[in-house]
Amino acid sequence: MPLPSVIGTEIEYGITVQNDRDFDPISSCVLLVNAYQENQDSQILWDYDQENPLMDARGFHVEGEKYTPNQQENIARNKTLRNGARFYVDHAHPEYSTPEVTNVLDLIAYERAGERTMEMARRAATALLPPGQTLLIYKNNSDRKGNSYGNHENYLIERKTPFKDVVEHFTPFLVSRQIYTGAGKIGSENRAMQCDYQISQRADFFETEVALDTMVKRPIINTRDEPHADRDKYRRLHVIIGDSNMSEVTTYLRVGVTSVILALIEDQAITKNMSIVEPVRAVKEVSHDIACKREFSMDRGGRLTAIQIQEDFLEMALAYFSSREVDPIIKDVLTRWEHTLSRLKEDPMQLDREIDWVIKHKLLRDYMSKRNTSWDHPQVQMLDLQYHDVRPDKGLYFLLERRDAVERIVDDADIEKAVYAPPTDTRAYFRGECIRRYPDSVFGVNWDSISFNVGDEPIKRILMNEPLKGTKAHVEELLNANPNVEDLVRSLTS
């Protein structure tokens, strides 16, 4: 049986400063992160000692230097939040990593909480800029200057699952899932064939099948082997081939269906050879085909469209769950997946309330029709970007949301709660509650550890190798019984 679900996302946002001729993205990111004041006086380090990004899932260690900032830079670039999330500077982008969650509904709530965190930080940072300058944040994946930044998904799977099975079965799924996960984009980049509009913002930037890198020669299957959990039991599958979505339904399908497919891979329930000939080329061709009619050569022989490939995966998933008790969320994911594929086959433009690339396509086509303009008109290009603006009063997606022109999955109350409160059913609860209760005593944090400053004693690091321990059910009574950190550490280490 597959492991219980533990998932999360890491989203890099686009950043710029309006009316700043000397715009420096890194210093702007540092300003943004530090402008967000949750625990104003806390000086919590991110524990880089617990990270090893150079370990490859194929069984070897890649040569290179691990980045470890000094203490001052560490504090300036990192915030671990009371909801268990991480808000930080990643190269030249602000990034928000959700806390670990156990289901896709919570994932959406915490990802959208990240949007609100970014907007609160943006407003606070703009107030610190010279008059006339405005800091802008976009939940997108390209600056249209040849640079792409990611939305990375993380899924906990069993380490005993052969990695070759992941590569074989997961590759064609990722290549073809773009038809309902893409955020949509005008034009092409990175020397890809020219097009007016395409499904995915990231597709043009993938250049190889399997590799460790995430910034150069990006792979369909990323091999980073950094589980942030018990290495003997778990693997964190780090998925970098996906767009940042505004639509809750698109995120729901992207993460929900992917979780289903990984469960099938773990349980060896993929019964067909789904491999695509030349998958790297197919990534771009799927994205450039907004009619979803193009056929691709299969290793097993014959040719299939991306929809037909997804239908084969759906058929195997329905067979797998037909003899099992199905979680209500998974049942709904399967139903929506089936419904989405059916409408994609009939006419993708039917999905103009649910799927990002279709919602945006309709928005832009309506504008072009009214103004008699073309895809290369500057105003149309600007609307493409404005769709992803995190400002509630300026972002075009939020305008559609207010008009009830897009379908919702989670309530605003759940999103607002997720801004400040951790999930209750993963170790993120312990992390977030410790930051809330003992902000001056938390010295350092990583996903699988938390370190406490206990007076004159050495720093005490508490390991959290089990993602489903440290939950509210496990530790609330312990936390309530130990109002000061010295007693808590003594209870945990005795």
How are the SSEs ordered, and which strands pair?
Layout: E1 7-12, E2 14-18, H1 25-35, E3 45-46, E4 55-56, E5 60-61, H2 71-77, E6 78-80, E7 86-90, E8 93-97, H3 104-126, E9 134-138, E10 151-158, H4 163-176, H5 178-181, E11 185-186, E12 197-198, E13 206-211, E14 218-222, E15 234-239, H6 248-266, H7 279-288, E16 295-297, E17 303-305, H8 306-321, H9 328-346, H10 356-371, H11 378-386, H12 396-402, H13 412-420, H14 428-437, E18 442-446, E19 449-452, E20 460-463, H15 472-481, H16 485-493
Task: Briefly summarize what is shown.
The chain is an alpha+beta fold. The chain has one domain (7-38, 81-416): Creatine Kinase, Chain A, domain 2 (2-Layer Sandwich). Helices cover 39% and strands 17% of the residues.
Could you describe the 3D structure shown?
- The chain has 494 residues and is α+β, with helices and mostly antiparallel strands.
- It has a single domain, classed as Creatine Kinase, Chain A, domain 2 (2-Layer Sandwich).
- Helix content is 39%, strand content 17%.
- The chain is built from 16 helices and 20 strands.
- The strands form 7 sheets. Strands 6-7-8-1-10-15 form a 6-stranded antiparallel β-sheet. Strands 3-18-19-20 form a 4-stranded mixed β-sheet. A two-stranded antiparallel sheet has the order 2-9.
- A hairpin with a 5-residue loop joins strand 16 (295-297) and strand 17.
- Helix 1 crosses helix 3, helix 3 (104-126) crosses helix 13 and helix 4 packs across helix 8 (306-321).
- The mean pLDDT is 95.
